[in-house]
Amino acid sequence: MKVSYIAIVIGLAxxxxxxxxxxxxxxxxxxxxxxxxxxxxxxxxxRLAGVTPANAGLNLNDIQGDILIxxxxxxxxxxxxxxxxAATFKSKxxxxxxxxxxxxxxxxxxxxxxxxxxxIAFSQAxxxxxxxxxxxxxxxxxxxxxxDAANLGDAGTTNWVSGFAGTKIHGVFLLASDTVDNVDxxxxxxxxxxxxxxxxxxxxxxxxxxxxxxxxEHFGFMDGISQPAVQGFTQNVLNxxxxxxxxxxxxxxxxxxxxSSRPSWTTGGSFLVFRQLxxxxxEFNKYVANHALSVPGLTAQENEDLFGARLIGRWKSGAxxxxxxxxxxxDLANDNTRNNNFTFNHxxxxxxxxxxxxxxxxxSAHIRKTRPRADLGSExxxxxxxxxxxxxxxxxxxxxxxxxxxxxxxxxxxxxxxxAYQSNIAxxxxxxxxxWVNNANFIFGKSTPPGVDPIIGRVAGSAAETPRDIxxxxxxxxxxxxSLDVEFVVSRGGEYFFSPPISALSGVLSA
Length: 511
Ligand code: HEM
Ligand SMILES: *[C@@H]1O[C@H](CO)[C@@H](O)[C@H](O)[C@H]1NC(C)=O
Ligand SMILES: *[C@@H]1O[C@H](CO)[C@@H](O)[C@H](O)[C@H]1NC(C)=O
Fold this sequence. Notes:
One of its GO terms (molecular function) is peroxidase activity. This is Dye-decolorizing peroxidase. By secondary structure, this protein is of the alpha+beta class. It is 23% helix and 15% strand. The protein has two domains: 28-277 and 499-510, no CATH class; 280-494, no CATH class. Residues 346, 349, 351-352, 357, 359-360 line the site of one 2-acetamido-2-deoxy-beta-D-glucopyranose.
C-alpha cells in the first residue's frame, strides 16, 4: 500500500515535470516571410554555404541571430540601458544572460527558435564601463553617434530623444518574438536577473505592420527586399542580389580590411547602427498627392502613385520601377527571382544613354542613392549593409489622415527603428548617408545633379525645414526640380553599438 502510494506520487511528479518541459518548441515563427523578401536560408543551405572552402569558418552558433537574418521580426523591443554596477552585471552576463542569447542557427528553423529571441550589443561607453579597453578599430563606434549628428546631416540634435543625446547608453537588448506578451515576459526575466545593475534609458517597441501591410514600412512600401547575400552563409543567390564577403558585415572574418588588427575576441561580431527615424506619414501622403504626375494614359491615382514610387524606386508592392516604369506589378514584386534583377542600365534599349536617361528610375530614388548598381560600373562597391530594422509606432489615425498632419501626441509617434549591420561603420552606414544620400551631386557624372535622397537625405549643415531640391522625378521633364519643403523623415537620434560574438559574453566582456 505504502509502496504503491509512493510510486504514484513519484509517477505524478515525473508526469508533471514532463508536462512543463523547460524548452517549449515553437509552432509559429518569430519571423515574417512576405513573398517579396528573400527567404531565410534553410539550416541545410546555411550548412552547405558554410563548407565552401574559401569561406569556411563562420561560426553560426557564435554569431548573434539578428545580424545575418535581416528585417523579418514580428515584434521587436529595443531596450537601451546603462550599466550602474559593472561587477554584478558582468557576473550575471556570463552566468545567466549568455545562455539566453540567440545565435544564427537557432533562428533558421521554427523548431529551434526560442520563445523570445534575445540579442545584446554594447556602445563604446558600455565597453568602457565594463573595463574593456581594447580598440575595436572603428572611429564612429568609438566616438558615438551623438558626436556624429552633424556629419550625418541631422538638423542639430533638438529632435533627438534625450536618452540618445550624449553617451549615457551602454548597451541595448533586442528582444524579438511573435507576441508582445512574450517579449514583455522576457524583458521582465532579464530585469529580474540583472536587478539594479542596469537602468533603463530608453525603449522602442517595433512591430511588423498589420494585415496586408506586413513587411511594409509606414509610408506603405514593401521593405527588406534587397539585402546582400553573404558568402559562407547564403547558398542560393538571387538574380541581381549583391554578394559580399562575410567580412564586409562581420568583424574579423574574410574580407574585413582590418581583420589582422581586430582584437581576437571580436571575430564574428558586427557593428550595429541604430537610428530612430520618425516618419511624417500624413505629410508624405499629402506631398505625394499634391505632386501627382501627368503622364499620358495614366489615371489620376496612377499618376499620384507613380510620383511616390519614383521617390523610393519601387512601387508599394515592392516591384522595382526600373522594370515596371509606369504601373505597379504585383507578380513582379512577389517573384524574388525577378524583383532584384535590374541594374538601372538598359543596353537592350537602342540609343539608351545611361548618363542622362531617367525615364525608368530617377537618379535620386532612395534605392538608387543607397545602392547605385551599374551606376558605379561594378557591383562590388564595398559599401553594403545588412538592414535589420522594424517599423515602430501605431498606424495613422483617422484624425491625422483627415488633417493631413502627424499628431504631436508622443504616443502616436511612428517611424522606422532602423538597424544596419556592417564590419566598418565608415564604409557602411556613414558612407551611404554622407557620401551618397546627402550628396546632391551623387550619382556623379549624370547630366542633371540628382539632389539629395528624397526620403532620408539632408544637406549637412542646413537648418531644419530648408527645402531640399531633387530632380528626375518627373519622367516627362527629368530636369524639373522639386523643392521638398517637408522633412518626411526626422532623425530622433540613435547610437552605434558592437554586437559581440556570444563567446565574448563569458570571456573578455565579463572578465
Ligand atoms: C524612415 C526611413 C527609411 C525608409 C522609409 C526606407 C524605405 C526603404 C524602402 C521602401 C526600400 C525598398 C525595399 C528594398 O529594396 O529592400 C529601401 C531600401 C533600402 N534602404 Fe531604406 N529606408 C529608410 C532609411 C534608410 C537609411 C537610413 C538607409 C541607410 C543610410 C537606408 C538604406 C537602404 C538600402 C541600402 C536599401 C536597399 C537598396 C538596394 O539594395 O537596392 N534606408 N528603403
Ligand atoms: C534577369 O535579367 C536579365 C537581363 O535583363 C534577363 O536576361 C533575365 O531573363 C532576367 N531573369 C529573370 C528571371 O527575369
Ligand atoms: C530612355 O529610355 C527609355 C526606355 O528605358 C526609352 O523609352 C526612352 O526613349 C529613352 N529616352 C531617350 C530620350 O532616349
